[in-house]
Fold each of these.
Amino acid sequence: MQTEINLRVDGTDRQVTVDTRTTLLDALRERLANTSPKKGCDHGQCGACTVLLNGRRVLSCLVLAVTAGGKDVVTANGLAPDGELHPVQQAFLDNDAFQCGYCTPGQVCSAVGALDEFRRGWPSHHGDTELTRAEVAERMSGNLCRCGAYTNIVTAVQQAARA
Amino acid sequence: MRAFDYQVPADALAAMRAVAGNDSAVFLAGGTNLVDHLKLGLTHPDLVVDITGVTSDEVVERDGGLWIGAAVRNSDLAADPRVCERYPMLSEALLSGASGQLRNMATAGGNPLQRTRCGYFQDNTTPCNKRRPGSGCAAVGGHARYQGILGTSEHCVATHPSDMAVALSALDAVVHVLGPDGERTIPFTELHRLPGDEPSRDTVLHHGDLITAIELPDTPIARRSRYRKVRDRASYAFALVSVAAAVDVTDGVVRDVRIALGGVAHKPWRAYLAEEALRGQAAIEDNFREAAAAELVDARAVDGMDGGNAFKIPLVTRTVVSVLRGLTQENQ
């Protein structure tokens, strides 16, 4: 079944016809040529596909594109609309918070969402009231990095939180 | 993945009717489990009915307790100040589950209905009585680390994966359901089934039954409650064993207690035997241990090529003792 949907992607209104089976991740990458979100596991386990959907971090590989009609999608690309880096992106560069970079767009979107959740006072399993290293690790645990750049990722998220 | 039609019904009644009238239709809420199952080929619906807009996404006060709309996201529920203050075990259980992204997607109505994460259930190439009735069970003698120790059957040893459901069981939550015959309620402790000889059925719900809300009764004892989850890594992992507990101690005696266990059975396991053993007894560690032993009288380990899951039996005891000790020390 083919369905036409309207999405706002990184600030631009887009219209695309998708098969109902298409995930938001595949719609972005294969139909709208936005390869910022990455396909890692495609089963909701790695976080590489993380985007902001109506402002919240979600896994685009587990969202059917038809359910995202009328919604606002922000990928890591959209965080730097005019080439000016988002504080989270700048912090990742400043701290060398990646090696191969494949998980980075997902890490960046997840960090933006996580910092927003923290500022809104959402609790976490770890339970620190400040963004200690352990607190950042808990809030970012849905994003895997096979290069193991976690040490610098945590530092980058802490820097971005102060920005 | 087989092609399917997609519907956005106008309201809960239309959603229920769309699914009840089509054996091959499914409800789609957060999608965190269903979309994965579509990819894995574990389910092949002809029709997917989007219910994210047909039930409430708010938590409201009612009769001294809270009503949780089925569309409330796990992250919103965990952060709700009323839940944190009055039912802390529920907030802790939610926060111990999955990841920030998944909690933003998962819903109160969908979370209890997620399927087991038994590796054989999720692998179409292996025998599994839950996925293909009569095909056998590859878990016994296979990877048994995450399998159950209570209420298992020769046909299935799988565990229910939800953390939230363990807390809802301890809290005597009530599930509100809209089905072809109208509205009804189901005590949360009776929502899930034991596998018996029909492990393909996880719950007592019938096809087309739609969970519309989950009700938390006024439960003063829950104001001091905990959820403790033991797992193979510190975050983003399913429970090996988990304990949701609340206890009321006066003058050193347990006046009332609630205990539910996760990671041990086909359903969230309300530990009625342990509760009964503890009521009226001194709040001391020996009694906590004896209460856990009473619950585990019929516990049976599953053998496996990974060493099996016999470790869970003493792990339940130690976790129950630890949680109750923590709660009762705060009490004094």
Amino acid sequence: MTLSKSQRQLLLNLLSLTLFLAIWHVLAILLNNRMLPLPLSVFKVLWAAMVSGELPYHLGITLLRLAVSFVIAMLIGCALGILLGRHGGLNQLFDQWLIIFLNVPALVSMILCYVWFGLTETAAILAVVINKIPNVVVTIREGTRALDQELLERARCFHFGKRKTLIHVIWPQLYPFLMAATRSGLALIWKIILVVELLGRSNGMGYQLNLYFQLFDVANILAYTIAFVAVIQLLEYCVLKPLEIYAQRWRR
Amino acid sequence: MTHIQINIQRKCYPAVAGAGQNLAIADLNLSLPAHEFICLVGPSGCGKTTLLNIIAGLDTDYQGTISLSQQQLQPRIGYVFQNPRLLPWRTVRENIELALPSPTAAVLIDELLAAMQLTECQDVYPERLSLGMSRRVAIIRAFAINPDLLLMDEPFVSIDPPTARQIRQLLLKLWQHRPHGVLFVTHDLREAITLADQLIFLSASPMQVIRNIPVTIPRNARDDEHAIEAFRNYLIQEFPAIQKLL
């Protein structure tokens, strides 16, 4: 029987996942320690948390925070990136700021946000947004600088107008940079949003993980992690990959 | 009626790292009648593209005036660039349609695509086209807007001779079908003689007009390669100054 390329990939993915679980299982049996539970017992815990509604609630809260801060950061970041990419003077003025904000440790900006604005939802979102914006700005700025002058000229020559130029000439050129910013941005937000929750919120994944850390409940920590990773994978395969394939359709 | 009046006193490129200031055009005065096919002949790098960019309004950094006098307020200018400049993320047909002010001329596009033998490629993305095909798309794009003035910047470079000949004939057919001004840049004298009503010889930078010669071969005799060759030899003998431009 011959398999198509995608079928083979799927089979390979399943195989590699099974191998991972097998190694985990063997290790857990060998160590025989409460700190590394068996895969099966972790899945039991996961199922219980799902059914009780506790996990969906906290995961949902975290995803909501993620979505809000992601959208805000992308909008502001893109606007700033295009502005800095198109105006050399502005870029010279603010380049230093960008480097400073890029290098402020995430923990510092979180603590400062909570200190200045209180332990509120706004402060939490703000902390994430501040960490993400410089990243987007840098990527989009590079994309704006790389815009093809010949194509822009051509648009001018054929009287494209602002709207047509943006949709048909500029947007497709920025798209790969936007995808890069989306990917690296999501990865960054995943990492810091939990810490933000751990420090100053009373719900969400970060809060739950902290709770189970204090209880030394490794099974629950692993269960939450699995749910989290599953959501990321789903997003990757159902949203990001198709978007990327669509954007690349014209390439040979 | 487009009647082009070109007076460029000075066009400079600013000094960039290493190279000094470059005076591209100085005191260029041209008056071109409407509906004529005019070939600009000159050595590479003499500023022909710069001139076309100025006429097209893409380059506004010069001293002088360009007037395209005519009844309409804004003459439609079709520009066939040296590179096809197609949008790689839009299909052949979309690339042509986007150049039109309104997507009404579907029939015209179909006709042009058929004439250029591109009907089968209309839904293909430009990266799959050969250079010759891309150039043909760029030519259709300029034709499709029904230009009052058509600017063509060495449009047949790196197209194989048979295809180039074919497109040349099509170009003439379209031009005779709907007369409009054509400014055609080339450094191939034979090509220029085949196409033009008038040849304008330009010097290397700073660009100036050296000679302005009407082509006297009747249009229906231009297929004859001997006639073209004879006219070329006549030009070179009569005006030795143009020899070093070729």
